[in-house]
Amino acid sequence: MYTNMAAPIMRYFVVAALLLIICPYSHVVFADGQCGNSAENAPESDCGCKVNRQSAQVPIKKSQAPESSDPSGSVGVDAEGETQKQDDPLKVNDEKSDKQNDIKSFRTNSMVFIPGGTFHMGTDDPIFVADGEMPSRKVTLDSFYMDKYEVSNSEFQRFVEDTKYKTEAEGFGNSFVMESYISEETKKKITQMVAAAPWWLPVDGADWRHPEGPDSDINERMDHPVLHASWNDAVAFCAWAGKRLPTEAEFEYACKGGKENRLFPWGNNLTPKGEHWMNIWQGEFPKENTAEDGYVGTSPVTAFPEQNKFGLKNIIGNVWEWTQDWWITKHSPHDSKNPKGPEKGTDKTKKGGSFQCHKSYCYRYRCVARSQNTPDSSAANLGFRCASDKLPDYLQAQEKDEL
Ligand SMILES: [Ca+2]
Ligand SMILES: [Ca+2]
């Protein structure tokens, strides 16, 4: 997995050179290709946009060893406002176990109907030019169905139990986790870091059952999104479920919910009615995660209000979501119908941003925002949901039962 290092290293040099051209007046050159003056005092970070299996990895020198004093992600409040212990950032209180056990069998595989139509994909007012957020172009889509929720651990467990599927992260033996979410014990065993994104660490034994490494589990997070699923894993899950991944155009159309020139699925107000409608990062990134939205890490896929008229939850925020499309940043301005992206490529496109996104750094919890990873990559902030041309038979039967 760490072979063929020359090409990725060259890619970073080329990207860095381009950024110096693109961002000549910026104080900050972001590792993931974004320009911005607003974060000039912040260290580089990118929500994992460039954490790929092919990324150049270098040994950690003693002086580069992850700091144990970084409090980000280690203190916060959960949805009920309970303070969490600093030494165990993601563990919920024991009294919640009964409730959590109840949701182990809770299904979150329902789909919503997205009526076809024409919309403007992308924007002529991009925040991140290098990401290819522009231009605004007219796209027409047929009707389709979209999962109402991100795929949960509970749903993914059903798939694994049924098929004995082994994820790519399990095969490789590691996956990427942001440093502040990793226990001190696990950090001590990490010997490599990603040259271009040192706050992301390849953790041995991190996989969908162990999101922060071998000493973590999902027992109390069965209704949270599955993490560490590669694009290939996501494709396999959706096929098992009688579905497929959404195209990028479908994802963005579903996200925009019929609104034009708006940042978020519901409009431009970050906190509509004074409430948090998505799981992102509050506080000073990356030093402090105040979790004003209720969550230091991921939230249940059912959390927060429906984000637009289609009834979708967490279509932005919580975890990044894979789409079908290969990544490209130069888009045709011409009208298109049911676009599926380029024929081939090296990276797949992901949408929606994650709980690790903050405006000062990864302002990508917007419908037009986009990023990419290689299809074998996986991380602790990356998940997916499925789409479908038709409602699968078992969901049709389920709908009839509910009538
Ligand atoms: Ca949050
Ligand atoms: Ca999401």
From TrEMBL:
InterPro entries listed in its UniProt record: CTDL_fold, Sulfatase_Mod_Factor_Kinase, SUMF_dom, SUMF_sf
Keyword line: Signal
Gene3D superfamilies: paralog of FGE (formylglycine-generating enzyme)
Biased composition (Basic and acidic residues): 82-101, 332-350
Protein's name in the database: Formylglycine-generating enzyme
Region: Disordered, residue numbers: 58-101, 331-353
Sulfatase-modifying factor enzyme-like domain boundaries: 108-387
PANTHER family assigned: FORMYLGLYCINE-GENERATING ENZYME, SULFATASE MODIFYING FACTOR 1, 2
Family to which the UniProt record says this protein belongs: Belongs to the sulfatase-modifying factor family.
Signal sequence segment: 1-31
